[in-house]
Amino acid sequence: MNRESTRAAATSSHRLTAGHWAGIVLAAVALAWLVYHSLAHPAHAGAHSASAPAGMWSVIPFVGLLLGIAVLPLVPATAHWWEHNSNKLLVGSAFGGATLAYYLLAFDLHKTMVVLEHAVLAEYLPFMTFLFALYVISGGICLKGDLPAHPATNTAFLALGAGLASFIGTTGASMVLIRPLLQTNSERTHVKHTVIFFIFLVSNVGGCLLPIGDPPLFLGYLRGVPFLWTLNLWVEWAFLCIVLLIIYYIWDTQAYRHETRSDITRDETRRVPLTLRGTYNLPLLLGVVLCVALVKPGEPLPGTSFTVFPFLRELLMLAIVGCSLKLTPHTIRADNQFNYHAIFEVAALFIGIFVCMQPPLEILRGSGDEIGKVLDEPWKFFWVTGGLSSFLDNAPTYLVFFQIANSMTHEAGPGIFQLLDGNYIRQDLLVAISLGAVFMGASTYIGNGPNFMVKSIAEKSGVKMPSFFGYMLYSMAILIPMFLAITLIFL
User: Fold this and answer.
1) pLDDT tens across 281-326, in order?
2) I need a surface site. Which of 115, 216, 350, 452 has the fewest CB within 10 A?
3) Torsion angle defined by CA atoms of residues 30, 14, 291 and 213, in that order, rounded to the nearest 10 degrees
4) What's the pTM value of the predicted model, to 2 decimals?
């Protein structure tokens, strides 16, 4: 293939195919019907919580789906099959369908529809619209260059990413920074540890200061946690970031000394200044942040008497995405190797997750007092939430323990939030849940969405990354002592 055809293929790689558009149209029709049904029957909103809870058998599809997400990519017989998003959607839909079948058989069509509306309209649609907006807009920002790969340079990259992640999301920061970091280190041999610390800091820990930083925190915001409340986590964030950056700098200094003279010579002579293109996407990212912070359904738009109608926030975010796609030249996204595979992967899996997690959430609403007798301290919430977030997706794990903490809090008082549904949650428990879900998502490749994405990009750039369990050896040796320190100092 000649250079022109290669460029054409790269330029078109980010475009939606006819199959993608067909899927989007079908999904839009289904969602439009759900919206109409929900608006036409507003009484259903309260029926979900008022009716009888689901039984314990209803949790099986949720557990099965999470186990499938964890195991199928690791089994040689299914690893290649799992790479296709259509198969992920098939698995998610199968387990989601099993959950809906349970409701239909155990209860009736009315409750089944209420569950479906709550899962899709109240949670999945805002969640995916937000992630989609960050993903597409950040994909139009191209930072390229080749700086000398000194330990100080690499540490500055990681520090920048840790700060940026809270403002454009761990997914956005990972996409913007991983490729220039790899280009900067392309002349070095010892790069694996740099990518590992990148996953720690940029793809996970850095995202805990705002709800747009990491998906679990956004779900908490949707439940009624104030938008700026997560800024209260800055002390724990700063502590872990600083310690990890110090450890990385010492590690990389030793690794740099083991580079060959020829590698160092190439690194010093092959310099390309950093260039940033697509900067008009930065105010668009700010627009998404403002939509999330200020446009709240059912509440007046700040400074006006206009009451925000349902899904206005999502429509505004999609409009901003449209502006990004219109303004950004195809060459910028092609240079970023941008495509829709990763976000479609999240969409395919999470439609099943959001449906399947409705029964356990119902059960937890009714049994929070009993669970609370065991999880009676913030540090316990931190370790249990974080431990599960290491192997299961941290967003639904956060919701499960958010609901437990919610069910343990029965009235208003000092250090207690009132949520959108009128219930309450203790702030000390919310701190522990938030830190556990965000920080410990770095413990494995499957703990948070960007982890596998960064691993894949690094391997395509020639970096030999550790296996699933090899990565865990690094994370356990480095992160567990840090988590113990956070427990002793802050919780």
Assistant:
1) 989 988 887 888 788 888 888 888 888 888 888 999 999 999 999 9
2) 452
3) 110
4) 0.74
